Sequence to fold (102 residues):
Amino acid sequence: MTHKEELLLKTPDVQVRVMHLDPGEAVAWHSHTAVDDIAVCLSGRIQVRLRDPNDVRTLEPGQRARVPAGTVHQVANLEAGDSDYLLIQGVGTYDFLPAGPA
Fold:
């Protein structure tokens, strides 16, 4: 499965997207060199999973979590239906560094 996304804003230092995850879908484990991720659950229920430190944050609509730059993480859909979240990334140059499975 490939997650779907809608780009709302992109500048050299900030990106804002709506991310759509199908039931049980998860974004691959990854990190970013310079940008923090802020995930705001819009619908369904998502889980933001972090490595080092190991942490799991379950978000329902309206709740948010911040992932600091350099932290390996993934976002997963916990629902039997679709889930959507707002992803705000910045401030800095965006990159996506795959981290491999947990």
